[in-house]
Amino acid sequence: MKMDVRPAVLATDHLTVQVGRRDVVRELDFTLQAGDTLVILGRNGAGKTTLLHTLAGLRAAAAGAVLLSGQPYAAWPRGHEACLRGLLAQSQPDFFSATVLETALVGRHPYLGRWDWEGPEDEAIALAALASMGLGDFAERQVPTLSGGERQRLAIATLLVQRPHLYLLDEPLAHLDLHHEVAVLDHFRELAANGAGVAMVLHDINLTARYASHVLLLDGEGGHIFGPAAEVLTTERLSAAFGHPLRAVADGTATLFVPA
Amino acid sequence: MAHGHATTAQHRPVSMRGTRLRARLVIAGLMAAALAAFAWSLSAGAMPVSVQDMLAALGSGEGSMEADIIRQLRLPRAIAAFACGGLLALAGALMQVLLRNPLADPYVLGISGGAAVGALGAILAGATAGWIDAGAFIGALGATLLVFGLAHGDGSWTQTRLLLTGVIVASGCGAAVALMLSLAPEGRVKGMLFWLMGDASSASRPWPALALLAIGLLAALPFARELNLLARGEITARALGVRVGRLRMLVYGLGALLTAVAVTTVGSVGFVGLIVPHLVRLAIGNDQRLLLPAATLAGGVLLCAADTAARTVVAPIQLPVGVLTALIGVPVFLFLLARHPR
Asked: A1-69+165-180+192-260 in CATH: which number?
Protein backbone atom coordinates (compact mmCIF):
# COMPACT_ATOMS: atom_id res chain seq x y z
CA MET A 1 0.00 0.00 0.00
CA LYS A 2 1.44 3.38 -0.94
CA MET A 3 0.70 6.53 0.95
CA ASP A 4 1.54 10.03 -0.06
CA VAL A 5 1.98 11.26 3.49
CA ARG A 6 3.71 8.76 5.72
CA PRO A 7 2.29 8.93 9.25
CA ALA A 8 4.67 9.40 12.17
CA VAL A 9 4.44 6.08 14.04
CA LEU A 10 6.38 7.48 16.97
CA ALA A 11 7.60 10.94 17.85
CA THR A 12 9.08 12.68 20.85
CA ASP A 13 8.69 16.32 21.77
CA HIS A 14 11.43 17.75 24.01
CA LEU A 15 11.56 14.42 25.83
CA THR A 16 13.67 14.24 28.97
CA VAL A 17 14.08 10.86 30.67
CA GLN A 18 15.75 10.46 34.05
CA VAL A 19 16.84 7.56 36.22
CA GLY A 20 16.99 8.88 39.76
CA ARG A 21 18.57 12.30 39.18
CA ARG A 22 20.67 11.26 36.21
CA ASP A 23 19.56 12.30 32.74
CA VAL A 24 19.26 9.53 30.17
CA VAL A 25 18.27 11.94 27.43
CA ARG A 26 17.63 15.67 27.57
CA GLU A 27 15.32 17.44 25.16
CA LEU A 28 15.11 14.59 22.66
CA ASP A 29 13.19 15.33 19.48
CA PHE A 30 12.83 12.71 16.83
CA THR A 31 10.22 11.32 14.49
CA LEU A 32 9.96 7.70 13.41
CA GLN A 33 8.01 7.29 10.17
CA ALA A 34 6.43 4.07 8.95
CA GLY A 35 9.18 2.15 7.20
CA ASP A 36 11.97 3.56 9.40
CA THR A 37 14.26 1.38 11.49
CA LEU A 38 15.83 3.23 14.40
CA VAL A 39 18.69 1.69 16.35
CA ILE A 40 19.53 3.05 19.80
CA LEU A 41 23.21 2.71 20.66
CA GLY A 42 25.08 3.50 23.83
CA ARG A 43 27.37 2.02 26.41
CA ASN A 44 26.19 -0.19 29.30
CA GLY A 45 24.07 1.74 31.76
CA ALA A 46 23.47 4.61 29.35
CA GLY A 47 19.73 4.14 29.86
CA LYS A 48 18.75 2.46 26.59
CA THR A 49 16.20 0.15 28.21
CA THR A 50 14.79 2.99 30.31
CA LEU A 51 14.38 5.11 27.21
CA LEU A 52 12.74 2.24 25.32
CA HIS A 53 10.27 1.66 28.16
CA THR A 54 9.48 5.38 28.16
CA LEU A 55 8.89 5.23 24.40
CA ALA A 56 6.59 2.24 25.09
CA GLY A 57 4.53 4.34 27.49
CA LEU A 58 5.44 2.16 30.48
CA ARG A 59 7.42 4.82 32.30
CA ALA A 60 6.69 8.46 32.91
CA ALA A 61 8.94 11.03 31.25
CA ALA A 62 10.60 13.69 33.40
CA ALA A 63 9.59 16.28 30.83
CA GLY A 64 8.32 16.47 27.29
CA ALA A 65 6.03 14.06 25.48
CA VAL A 66 5.98 10.76 23.61
CA LEU A 67 3.51 10.63 20.74
CA LEU A 68 2.28 7.27 19.48
CA SER A 69 0.69 7.66 16.03
CA GLY A 70 0.31 11.35 16.77
CA GLN A 71 -1.21 11.15 20.26
CA PRO A 72 0.18 10.83 23.77
CA TYR A 73 -0.37 7.39 25.33
CA ALA A 74 -2.86 8.81 27.81
CA ALA A 75 -5.09 9.98 24.94
CA TRP A 76 -5.54 6.47 23.54
CA PRO A 77 -8.44 4.41 24.91
CA ARG A 78 -7.29 2.04 27.67
CA GLY A 79 -5.76 -1.09 26.17
CA HIS A 80 -5.84 0.18 22.58
CA GLU A 81 -2.18 1.22 22.77
CA ALA A 82 -1.31 -2.49 22.95
CA CYS A 83 -2.75 -2.92 19.44
CA LEU A 84 -0.51 -0.11 18.18
CA ARG A 85 2.86 -0.75 19.78
CA GLY A 86 4.56 -3.89 20.98
CA LEU A 87 7.59 -4.27 23.21
CA LEU A 88 10.13 -7.06 23.21
CA ALA A 89 11.47 -6.84 26.76
CA GLN A 90 14.74 -8.32 27.91
CA SER A 91 14.09 -11.91 28.84
CA GLN A 92 12.70 -12.54 32.30
CA PRO A 93 12.85 -15.87 34.11
CA ASP A 94 9.80 -18.14 33.86
CA PHE A 95 8.52 -19.54 37.12
CA PHE A 96 5.60 -21.49 35.70
CA SER A 97 5.51 -23.92 32.84
CA ALA A 98 3.51 -23.32 29.63
CA THR A 99 3.55 -24.66 26.11
CA VAL A 100 5.13 -22.71 23.27
CA LEU A 101 1.76 -22.21 21.54
CA GLU A 102 0.13 -21.05 24.78
CA THR A 103 2.94 -18.52 25.24
CA ALA A 104 2.71 -17.19 21.68
CA LEU A 105 -1.08 -16.78 22.05
CA VAL A 106 -0.45 -14.24 24.81
CA GLY A 107 0.18 -11.75 22.00
CA ARG A 108 -3.52 -11.88 21.12
CA HIS A 109 -4.53 -10.50 24.51
CA PRO A 110 -5.16 -6.91 23.34
CA TYR A 111 -7.62 -8.13 20.70
CA LEU A 112 -9.74 -10.31 22.99
CA GLY A 113 -12.64 -9.24 25.16
CA ARG A 114 -12.68 -9.99 28.87
CA TRP A 115 -14.54 -13.26 28.47
CA ASP A 116 -13.18 -14.30 25.06
CA TRP A 117 -11.05 -17.38 24.50
CA GLU A 118 -8.45 -17.62 21.78
CA GLY A 119 -10.14 -19.15 18.73
CA PRO A 120 -8.87 -20.95 15.62
CA GLU A 121 -7.98 -17.64 13.91
CA ASP A 122 -5.85 -16.63 16.88
CA GLU A 123 -4.14 -20.02 16.83
CA ALA A 124 -3.50 -19.70 13.09
CA ILE A 125 -1.84 -16.29 13.67
CA ALA A 126 0.26 -17.73 16.51
CA LEU A 127 1.32 -20.81 14.52
CA ALA A 128 2.30 -18.64 11.55
CA ALA A 129 4.40 -16.41 13.80
CA LEU A 130 6.06 -19.45 15.37
CA ALA A 131 6.82 -20.85 11.92
CA SER A 132 8.34 -17.50 10.85
CA MET A 133 10.75 -17.78 13.78
CA GLY A 134 11.61 -21.39 12.96
CA LEU A 135 9.56 -22.75 15.86
CA GLY A 136 6.83 -24.40 13.78
CA ASP A 137 7.55 -27.83 15.22
CA PHE A 138 7.86 -26.59 18.77
CA ALA A 139 4.22 -25.60 19.37
CA GLU A 140 3.52 -28.28 21.96
CA ARG A 141 6.89 -28.16 23.71
CA GLN A 142 7.12 -26.86 27.26
CA VAL A 143 8.91 -23.51 27.41
CA PRO A 144 11.40 -24.55 30.14
CA THR A 145 12.75 -27.24 27.80
CA LEU A 146 13.81 -24.63 25.21
CA SER A 147 17.32 -23.26 24.84
CA GLY A 148 18.07 -19.58 25.45
CA GLY A 149 18.04 -18.77 21.74
CA GLU A 150 14.79 -20.67 21.20
CA ARG A 151 13.16 -18.76 24.04
CA GLN A 152 14.31 -15.49 22.53
CA ARG A 153 12.76 -16.47 19.19
CA LEU A 154 9.58 -17.44 21.04
CA ALA A 155 9.50 -13.99 22.66
CA ILE A 156 9.88 -12.42 19.20
CA ALA A 157 7.14 -14.68 17.80
CA THR A 158 4.85 -13.61 20.66
CA LEU A 159 5.50 -9.98 19.73
CA LEU A 160 4.74 -10.76 16.06
CA VAL A 161 1.42 -12.30 17.16
CA GLN A 162 0.55 -8.91 18.68
CA ARG A 163 0.85 -7.33 15.19
CA PRO A 164 1.50 -3.75 16.28
CA HIS A 165 2.38 -0.82 14.00
CA LEU A 166 5.38 0.04 16.13
CA TYR A 167 7.90 -2.55 17.27
CA LEU A 168 10.12 -1.63 20.22
CA LEU A 169 12.87 -4.22 20.65
CA ASP A 170 15.22 -4.43 23.61
CA GLU A 171 18.28 -6.41 22.48
CA PRO A 172 16.34 -8.63 20.05
CA LEU A 173 19.52 -10.56 19.20
CA ALA A 174 20.27 -11.72 22.75
CA HIS A 175 21.20 -15.44 22.82
CA LEU A 176 20.77 -15.78 19.04
CA ASP A 177 23.31 -17.46 16.79
CA LEU A 178 24.63 -15.71 13.69
CA HIS A 179 22.07 -17.21 11.33
CA HIS A 180 19.13 -16.23 13.50
CA GLU A 181 20.55 -12.75 14.15
CA VAL A 182 20.43 -12.02 10.45
CA ALA A 183 17.10 -13.83 9.97
CA VAL A 184 15.43 -11.83 12.76
CA LEU A 185 16.75 -8.51 11.48
CA ASP A 186 15.67 -9.44 7.93
CA HIS A 187 12.19 -10.17 9.28
CA PHE A 188 11.90 -6.77 10.93
CA ARG A 189 13.30 -5.07 7.83
CA GLU A 190 10.48 -6.71 5.87
CA LEU A 191 7.90 -5.55 8.43
CA ALA A 192 9.27 -2.02 8.15
CA ALA A 193 9.12 -2.21 4.36
CA ASN A 194 5.44 -3.14 4.74
CA GLY A 195 4.70 -0.03 6.77
CA ALA A 196 5.68 -0.75 10.38
CA GLY A 197 8.00 1.36 12.49
CA VAL A 198 10.86 -0.37 14.28
CA ALA A 199 13.02 0.98 17.12
CA MET A 200 15.55 -1.29 18.77
CA VAL A 201 18.43 -1.39 21.17
CA LEU A 202 21.42 -3.19 19.65
CA HIS A 203 25.02 -3.71 20.66
CA ASP A 204 26.43 -4.70 17.28
CA ILE A 205 27.59 -1.59 15.41
CA ASN A 206 28.07 -3.43 12.13
CA LEU A 207 24.59 -4.95 12.13
CA THR A 208 23.34 -1.46 13.00
CA ALA A 209 25.11 -0.09 9.95
CA ARG A 210 23.55 -2.81 7.82
CA TYR A 211 19.93 -2.51 9.00
CA ALA A 212 19.31 0.91 10.57
CA SER A 213 17.78 3.78 8.66
CA HIS A 214 18.31 6.06 11.66
CA VAL A 215 20.53 5.90 14.71
CA LEU A 216 20.16 7.46 18.15
CA LEU A 217 23.51 7.53 19.93
CA LEU A 218 23.38 8.11 23.69
CA ASP A 219 26.43 9.43 25.54
CA GLY A 220 25.18 8.25 28.94
CA GLU A 221 24.99 11.76 30.40
CA GLY A 222 21.86 13.00 28.70
CA GLY A 223 23.54 14.07 25.47
CA HIS A 224 22.49 12.36 22.24
CA ILE A 225 22.93 12.40 18.51
CA PHE A 226 20.02 11.48 16.25
CA GLY A 227 20.12 11.24 12.49
CA PRO A 228 20.27 9.05 9.42
CA ALA A 229 22.48 6.03 10.11
CA ALA A 230 25.25 7.05 7.71
CA GLU A 231 25.59 10.46 9.39
CA VAL A 232 25.68 9.20 12.96
CA LEU A 233 27.91 6.17 12.44
CA THR A 234 31.33 7.74 12.24
CA THR A 235 34.47 6.57 14.00
CA GLU A 236 34.79 9.80 16.02
CA ARG A 237 31.22 9.73 17.29
CA LEU A 238 31.19 6.01 18.06
CA SER A 239 34.60 6.15 19.75
CA ALA A 240 33.40 8.98 21.98
CA ALA A 241 30.07 7.29 22.83
CA PHE A 242 31.57 3.92 23.69
CA GLY A 243 34.71 5.26 25.35
CA HIS A 244 36.90 3.05 23.19
CA PRO A 245 38.72 3.98 19.97
CA LEU A 246 37.21 2.42 16.85
CA ARG A 247 38.46 2.30 13.33
CA ALA A 248 36.59 1.87 10.06
CA VAL A 249 37.67 -0.85 7.64
CA ALA A 250 36.25 -0.83 4.11
CA ASP A 251 36.08 -4.14 2.31
CA GLY A 252 34.77 -2.74 -0.96
CA THR A 253 31.02 -3.24 -0.34
CA ALA A 254 30.62 -2.16 3.27
CA THR A 255 32.42 -0.24 5.97
CA LEU A 256 33.06 -2.24 9.12
CA PHE A 257 33.85 -0.78 12.53
CA VAL A 258 36.38 -2.65 14.60
CA PRO A 259 37.92 -1.82 17.99
CA ALA A 260 41.27 -0.16 17.46
CA MET B 1 12.72 -16.32 7.09
CA ALA B 2 13.98 -19.49 5.50
CA HIS B 3 14.42 -22.26 7.99
CA GLY B 4 15.29 -25.83 7.17
CA HIS B 5 13.49 -27.26 10.15
CA ALA B 6 10.36 -25.18 9.70
CA THR B 7 9.30 -27.07 6.62
CA THR B 8 8.88 -30.44 8.31
CA ALA B 9 5.40 -31.79 7.69
CA GLN B 10 2.95 -31.47 10.58
CA HIS B 11 1.72 -34.86 11.71
CA ARG B 12 -1.50 -33.56 13.16
CA PRO B 13 -3.04 -30.16 13.65
CA VAL B 14 -1.63 -28.39 16.70
CA SER B 15 -4.24 -26.67 18.81
CA MET B 16 -5.15 -25.67 22.33
CA ARG B 17 -8.44 -27.54 22.04
CA GLY B 18 -7.07 -30.84 23.34
CA THR B 19 -5.52 -29.16 26.38
CA ARG B 20 -8.72 -27.29 27.16
CA LEU B 21 -10.92 -30.33 26.70
CA ARG B 22 -8.74 -32.23 29.12
CA ALA B 23 -8.92 -29.38 31.64
CA ARG B 24 -12.71 -29.31 31.37
CA LEU B 25 -12.84 -33.05 31.93
CA VAL B 26 -10.69 -32.61 35.03
CA ILE B 27 -13.08 -29.91 36.29
CA ALA B 28 -16.07 -32.18 35.64
CA GLY B 29 -14.27 -34.98 37.48
CA LEU B 30 -13.62 -32.65 40.41
CA MET B 31 -17.31 -31.75 40.56
CA ALA B 32 -18.15 -35.45 40.80
CA ALA B 33 -15.45 -35.84 43.46
CA ALA B 34 -17.01 -32.94 45.39
CA LEU B 35 -20.38 -34.73 45.43
CA ALA B 36 -18.69 -37.94 46.55
CA ALA B 37 -16.78 -36.12 49.30
CA PHE B 38 -20.02 -34.56 50.58
CA ALA B 39 -21.78 -37.92 50.49
CA TRP B 40 -18.96 -39.54 52.46
CA SER B 41 -18.80 -36.68 54.93
CA LEU B 42 -22.56 -36.80 55.61
CA SER B 43 -22.79 -40.59 55.89
CA ALA B 44 -19.60 -41.49 57.78
CA GLY B 45 -19.20 -41.19 61.54
CA ALA B 46 -20.10 -42.74 64.85
CA MET B 47 -23.60 -43.25 63.46
CA PRO B 48 -23.31 -44.39 59.82
CA VAL B 49 -26.18 -43.26 57.60
CA SER B 50 -27.05 -44.85 54.27
CA VAL B 51 -27.25 -42.70 51.16
CA GLN B 52 -31.05 -43.09 50.94
CA ASP B 53 -31.51 -42.00 54.54
CA MET B 54 -29.09 -39.17 53.99
CA LEU B 55 -31.03 -37.84 51.00
CA ALA B 56 -34.28 -38.26 52.92
CA ALA B 57 -32.83 -36.33 55.87
CA LEU B 58 -31.65 -33.51 53.60
CA GLY B 59 -34.92 -33.41 51.67
CA SER B 60 -37.51 -33.50 54.41
CA GLY B 61 -37.95 -31.44 57.51
CA GLU B 62 -38.69 -34.27 59.95
CA GLY B 63 -36.79 -34.45 63.16
CA SER B 64 -35.44 -37.99 63.31
CA MET B 65 -32.12 -38.31 65.10
CA GLU B 66 -30.30 -39.13 61.88
CA ALA B 67 -31.72 -36.06 60.23
CA ASP B 68 -30.66 -33.91 63.18
CA ILE B 69 -27.11 -35.27 63.13
CA ILE B 70 -26.79 -34.69 59.42
CA ARG B 71 -28.37 -31.27 59.26
CA GLN B 72 -27.02 -29.78 62.43
CA LEU B 73 -23.61 -31.42 62.79
CA ARG B 74 -22.29 -33.03 59.65
CA LEU B 75 -23.65 -30.72 56.95
CA PRO B 76 -22.34 -27.45 58.45
CA ARG B 77 -19.01 -29.10 59.08
CA ALA B 78 -18.78 -30.54 55.56
CA ILE B 79 -19.71 -27.18 54.03
CA ALA B 80 -17.20 -25.35 56.23
CA ALA B 81 -14.41 -27.76 55.28
CA PHE B 82 -15.26 -27.62 51.58
CA ALA B 83 -15.55 -23.84 51.54
CA CYS B 84 -12.34 -23.26 53.45
CA GLY B 85 -10.39 -25.76 51.34
CA GLY B 86 -11.61 -23.90 48.27
CA LEU B 87 -10.81 -20.50 49.79
CA LEU B 88 -7.28 -21.54 50.69
CA ALA B 89 -6.58 -23.15 47.31
CA LEU B 90 -7.95 -20.13 45.42
CA ALA B 91 -6.00 -17.72 47.63
CA GLY B 92 -2.86 -19.82 47.16
CA ALA B 93 -3.22 -19.83 43.37
CA LEU B 94 -3.69 -16.04 43.41
CA MET B 95 -0.68 -15.46 45.68
CA GLN B 96 1.55 -17.63 43.49
CA VAL B 97 0.71 -15.42 40.52
CA LEU B 98 0.94 -12.18 42.49
CA LEU B 99 4.38 -13.01 43.83
CA ARG B 100 5.45 -14.98 40.72
CA ASN B 101 6.71 -17.55 43.16
CA PRO B 102 5.69 -21.20 43.17
CA LEU B 103 6.50 -21.39 46.90
CA ALA B 104 3.97 -18.74 47.84
CA ASP B 105 0.92 -19.83 49.80
CA PRO B 106 -1.98 -17.92 51.35
CA TYR B 107 -0.04 -17.52 54.58
CA VAL B 108 3.06 -16.06 53.02
CA LEU B 109 1.96 -12.51 53.75
CA GLY B 110 1.65 -13.20 57.47
CA ILE B 111 -2.12 -13.69 57.38
CA SER B 112 -2.23 -16.94 59.34
CA GLY B 113 0.28 -15.60 61.84
CA GLY B 114 -1.84 -12.52 62.44
CA ALA B 115 -4.98 -14.63 62.72
CA ALA B 116 -3.26 -16.96 65.19
CA VAL B 117 -2.17 -14.06 67.39
CA GLY B 118 -5.72 -12.69 67.36
CA ALA B 119 -7.42 -16.04 68.00
CA LEU B 120 -5.01 -17.25 70.67
CA GLY B 121 -5.16 -13.88 72.38
CA ALA B 122 -8.94 -14.26 72.50
CA ILE B 123 -8.70 -17.84 73.83
CA LEU B 124 -6.16 -16.70 76.43
CA ALA B 125 -8.55 -14.00 77.55
CA GLY B 126 -11.24 -16.65 77.93
CA ALA B 127 -13.37 -15.41 75.07
CA THR B 128 -16.30 -17.33 73.60
CA ALA B 129 -16.28 -18.88 70.11
CA GLY B 130 -17.67 -15.80 68.41
CA TRP B 131 -14.98 -13.56 69.87
CA ILE B 132 -12.26 -16.06 68.92
CA ASP B 133 -13.47 -15.81 65.32
CA ALA B 134 -13.50 -12.03 65.57
CA GLY B 135 -10.00 -12.03 67.04
CA ALA B 136 -8.72 -14.25 64.22
CA PHE B 137 -10.31 -12.07 61.55
CA ILE B 138 -9.00 -8.83 63.03
CA GLY B 139 -5.54 -10.36 63.46
CA ALA B 140 -5.52 -11.59 59.84
CA LEU B 141 -6.50 -8.24 58.40
CA GLY B 142 -4.10 -6.45 60.76
CA ALA B 143 -1.18 -8.55 59.52
CA THR B 144 -2.23 -7.99 55.89
CA LEU B 145 -2.35 -4.24 56.31
CA LEU B 146 0.95 -4.24 58.21
CA VAL B 147 2.74 -6.21 55.48
CA PHE B 148 1.19 -4.12 52.74
CA GLY B 149 2.02 -0.85 54.49
CA LEU B 150 5.63 -1.82 55.18
CA ALA B 151 6.31 -3.35 51.76
CA HIS B 152 4.60 -0.49 49.98
CA GLY B 153 6.21 2.23 52.07
CA ASP B 154 8.33 3.88 49.39
CA GLY B 155 5.80 3.37 46.61
CA SER B 156 7.74 0.66 44.84
CA TRP B 157 6.43 -2.84 45.10
CA THR B 158 8.68 -5.68 44.18
CA GLN B 159 7.67 -9.25 44.80
CA THR B 160 10.82 -9.94 46.80
CA ARG B 161 10.17 -7.04 49.15
CA LEU B 162 6.58 -8.11 49.71
CA LEU B 163 7.60 -11.72 50.28
CA LEU B 164 10.37 -10.80 52.69
CA THR B 165 8.13 -8.46 54.69
CA GLY B 166 5.49 -11.20 54.89
CA VAL B 167 7.96 -13.79 56.06
CA ILE B 168 9.34 -11.46 58.75
CA VAL B 169 5.89 -10.46 60.02
CA ALA B 170 4.89 -14.15 60.06
CA SER B 171 7.90 -15.09 62.14
CA GLY B 172 7.18 -12.25 64.54
CA CYS B 173 3.63 -13.59 64.90
CA GLY B 174 5.10 -17.07 65.45
CA ALA B 175 7.12 -15.76 68.38
CA ALA B 176 4.04 -14.07 69.85
CA VAL B 177 2.09 -17.35 69.49
CA ALA B 178 4.86 -19.31 71.24
CA LEU B 179 4.87 -16.73 74.04
CA MET B 180 1.10 -17.01 74.51
CA LEU B 181 1.26 -20.82 74.52
CA SER B 182 3.92 -20.80 77.21
CA LEU B 183 1.97 -18.32 79.34
CA ALA B 184 -1.43 -19.97 78.89
CA PRO B 185 -3.03 -21.93 81.76
CA GLU B 186 -2.99 -25.71 81.27
CA GLY B 187 -6.70 -25.98 80.49
CA ARG B 188 -6.59 -23.67 77.47
CA VAL B 189 -3.49 -25.00 75.76
CA LYS B 190 -5.26 -27.86 73.99
CA GLY B 191 -7.86 -25.55 72.47
CA MET B 192 -5.10 -23.24 71.35
CA LEU B 193 -3.12 -26.07 69.76
CA PHE B 194 -6.20 -27.35 67.94
CA TRP B 195 -6.89 -23.88 66.61
CA LEU B 196 -3.29 -23.64 65.38
CA MET B 197 -3.43 -27.01 63.61
CA GLY B 198 -6.75 -26.29 61.97
CA ASP B 199 -10.05 -27.70 63.13
CA ALA B 200 -13.46 -27.69 61.49
CA SER B 201 -15.37 -29.24 64.39
CA SER B 202 -16.47 -25.91 65.83
CA ALA B 203 -17.51 -24.42 62.51
CA SER B 204 -21.20 -23.90 63.11
CA ARG B 205 -21.74 -21.05 60.67
CA PRO B 206 -20.29 -22.20 57.34
CA TRP B 207 -22.44 -20.08 55.03
CA PRO B 208 -20.31 -16.88 55.02
CA ALA B 209 -17.29 -18.91 53.92
CA LEU B 210 -19.22 -20.66 51.15
CA ALA B 211 -20.74 -17.39 49.95
CA LEU B 212 -17.33 -15.72 49.92
CA LEU B 213 -15.91 -18.66 47.99
CA ALA B 214 -18.47 -18.14 45.23
CA ILE B 215 -18.01 -14.36 45.25
CA GLY B 216 -14.22 -14.65 45.27
CA LEU B 217 -14.13 -17.04 42.33
CA LEU B 218 -16.58 -14.91 40.36
CA ALA B 219 -14.50 -11.80 41.12
CA ALA B 220 -11.23 -13.43 40.04
CA LEU B 221 -12.39 -15.14 36.84
CA PRO B 222 -12.91 -11.97 34.76
CA PHE B 223 -9.24 -11.14 35.39
CA ALA B 224 -7.94 -14.66 34.77
CA ARG B 225 -6.37 -13.96 31.39
CA GLU B 226 -4.70 -10.84 32.79
CA LEU B 227 -3.34 -13.02 35.60
CA ASN B 228 -1.83 -15.31 32.96
CA LEU B 229 0.07 -12.29 31.67
CA LEU B 230 1.07 -11.12 35.14
CA ALA B 231 2.53 -14.59 35.78
CA ARG B 232 4.85 -13.97 32.83
CA GLY B 233 6.21 -10.75 34.23
CA GLU B 234 5.17 -7.20 34.94
CA ILE B 235 6.73 -5.55 31.87
CA THR B 236 5.20 -8.10 29.49
CA ALA B 237 1.80 -7.69 31.12
CA ARG B 238 1.91 -3.90 31.00
CA ALA B 239 3.12 -3.86 27.40
CA LEU B 240 0.07 -5.95 26.47
CA GLY B 241 -2.28 -3.47 28.11
CA VAL B 242 -2.81 -4.96 31.58
CA ARG B 243 -3.31 -2.39 34.34
CA VAL B 244 -0.85 -4.13 36.61
CA GLY B 245 -1.16 -1.85 39.64
CA ARG B 246 -4.92 -2.21 39.81
CA LEU B 247 -4.75 -5.95 39.17
CA ARG B 248 -2.23 -6.45 41.97
CA MET B 249 -4.34 -4.52 44.45
CA LEU B 250 -7.32 -6.67 43.51
CA VAL B 251 -5.41 -9.93 43.85
CA TYR B 252 -3.79 -8.87 47.10
CA GLY B 253 -7.05 -7.72 48.67
CA LEU B 254 -9.01 -10.71 47.44
CA GLY B 255 -6.35 -13.22 48.50
CA ALA B 256 -6.12 -11.65 51.96
CA LEU B 257 -9.90 -11.62 52.44
CA LEU B 258 -10.33 -15.24 51.31
CA THR B 259 -7.54 -16.40 53.60
CA ALA B 260 -8.78 -14.37 56.57
CA VAL B 261 -12.25 -15.91 56.31
CA ALA B 262 -10.80 -19.43 55.92
CA VAL B 263 -8.53 -19.19 58.98
CA THR B 264 -11.34 -17.59 60.95
CA THR B 265 -13.61 -20.54 60.13
CA VAL B 266 -11.28 -23.54 60.45
CA GLY B 267 -7.98 -22.22 61.81
CA SER B 268 -4.73 -22.25 59.90
CA VAL B 269 -4.95 -25.46 57.91
CA GLY B 270 -1.63 -25.93 56.19
CA PHE B 271 -0.53 -27.19 52.76
CA VAL B 272 -3.90 -26.89 51.00
CA GLY B 273 -3.09 -23.43 49.68
CA LEU B 274 0.42 -24.42 48.62
CA ILE B 275 -0.07 -27.90 47.26
CA VAL B 276 -3.49 -27.88 45.62
CA PRO B 277 -2.67 -25.21 43.00
CA HIS B 278 0.49 -27.13 42.13
CA LEU B 279 -1.32 -30.46 41.88
CA VAL B 280 -3.89 -28.91 39.57
CA ARG B 281 -1.18 -27.16 37.56
CA LEU B 282 0.56 -30.49 36.98
CA ALA B 283 -2.73 -31.93 35.72
CA ILE B 284 -4.08 -29.12 33.51
CA GLY B 285 -1.37 -26.48 33.05
CA ASN B 286 -1.22 -22.89 34.21
CA ASP B 287 -4.07 -21.16 32.36
CA GLN B 288 -5.71 -19.29 35.25
CA ARG B 289 -9.12 -19.41 33.54
CA LEU B 290 -9.10 -23.17 34.13
CA LEU B 291 -6.70 -23.35 37.06
CA LEU B 292 -8.66 -21.06 39.40
CA PRO B 293 -11.97 -22.99 39.26
CA ALA B 294 -10.21 -26.36 39.23
CA ALA B 295 -7.99 -25.47 42.21
CA THR B 296 -11.02 -24.13 44.11
CA LEU B 297 -12.89 -27.41 43.60
CA ALA B 298 -9.85 -29.56 44.36
CA GLY B 299 -9.10 -27.64 47.56
CA GLY B 300 -12.69 -28.07 48.68
CA VAL B 301 -12.68 -31.79 47.93
CA LEU B 302 -9.35 -32.31 49.70
CA LEU B 303 -10.32 -30.50 52.89
CA CYS B 304 -13.83 -32.00 53.01
CA ALA B 305 -12.41 -35.52 52.63
CA ALA B 306 -9.52 -34.86 55.02
CA ASP B 307 -11.91 -33.52 57.66
CA THR B 308 -14.13 -36.58 57.34
CA ALA B 309 -11.08 -38.80 57.69
CA ALA B 310 -9.88 -36.73 60.65
CA ARG B 311 -13.05 -37.44 62.62
CA THR B 312 -13.50 -41.09 61.60
CA VAL B 313 -10.17 -42.93 61.18
CA VAL B 314 -9.31 -43.10 64.88
CA ALA B 315 -12.80 -42.36 66.24
CA PRO B 316 -13.77 -41.38 68.83
CA ILE B 317 -10.58 -39.34 68.86
CA GLN B 318 -10.72 -36.38 66.46
CA LEU B 319 -7.49 -35.49 64.70
CA PRO B 320 -6.73 -31.91 63.72
CA VAL B 321 -7.50 -31.71 60.01
CA GLY B 322 -4.43 -29.62 59.24
CA VAL B 323 -2.24 -32.55 60.26
CA LEU B 324 -4.08 -34.85 57.85
CA THR B 325 -3.91 -32.46 54.91
CA ALA B 326 -0.17 -32.34 55.35
CA LEU B 327 0.12 -36.11 55.79
CA ILE B 328 -1.92 -36.72 52.62
CA GLY B 329 -0.71 -33.74 50.62
CA VAL B 330 3.04 -34.00 51.04
CA PRO B 331 3.57 -37.55 49.71
CA VAL B 332 1.06 -37.08 46.88
CA PHE B 333 2.76 -33.88 45.86
CA LEU B 334 6.26 -35.33 45.99
CA PHE B 335 5.12 -38.34 43.96
CA LEU B 336 3.57 -36.19 41.24
CA LEU B 337 6.55 -33.85 41.14
CA ALA B 338 8.94 -36.76 40.70
CA ARG B 339 6.81 -38.11 37.84
CA HIS B 340 6.95 -34.82 35.92
CA PRO B 341 10.54 -34.29 34.84
CA ARG B 342 10.10 -30.66 33.89
From this structure: 3.40.50.300
The region of weakest confidence among A37-41, A69-73, B214-218, B322-326 is: B322-326
Q: In this structure, is residue B150 part of a structural domain?
A: yes
Using CA atoms, how far apart are residues B306 and B133, in angstroms rounded to an integer? 22
Domain containing B225: what range?
Answer: 22-339
**B1 is a domain residue:** no
How many independent structural domains does chain B possess?
1
Question: What is the least distance, in Å, from the CA of B2 to any CA of chain A?
Answer: 8
What is the model's pTM?
Answer: 0.91
Domain boundaries of chain A, sorted by first residue: 1-69+165-180+192-260
Q: Give the tens place of pLDDT for each residue, A133-167.
A: 999 999 999 999 999 999 999 999 999 999 999 99
- Dump the DSSP string for chain A: ---SS--EEEEEEEEEEEETTEEEEEEEEEEEETT-EEEEE--TTSSHHHHHHHHTTSS--SEEEEEETTEEGGGSPTTTHHHHEEEEPPP----S--BHHHHHHGGGGGGS-TT----HHHHHHHHHHHHHTT-GGGTTSBGGGS-HHHHHHHHHHHHHHH--SEEEEESTTTT--HHHHHHHHHHHHHHHHTT-EEEEE-S-HHHHHHH-SEEEEE-SSB-EEEEEHHHH--HHHHHHHHTS-EEEEE-SS-EEEEE-
A-chain residues near B15 (CB < 8 A): 101, 120, 123
Let me know: does B112 contact B263? Beta carbons within 8 Å. Answer: yes
Identify residue A51 by its one-letter amino acid code. L
Nearest CA to CA, how far is B137 from chain A (Å)?
Answer: 32
State the DSSP string of B298-314.
HHHHHHHHHHHHHHHTT
- Find the CATH number of the domain harbouring B118: 1.10.3470.10
- What residues of B are in contact with residue A144 (Cβ under 8 Å)? 342
Cβ separation B232–A187 shorter than 8 A: no
| Helix/strand/coil for B208 | helix
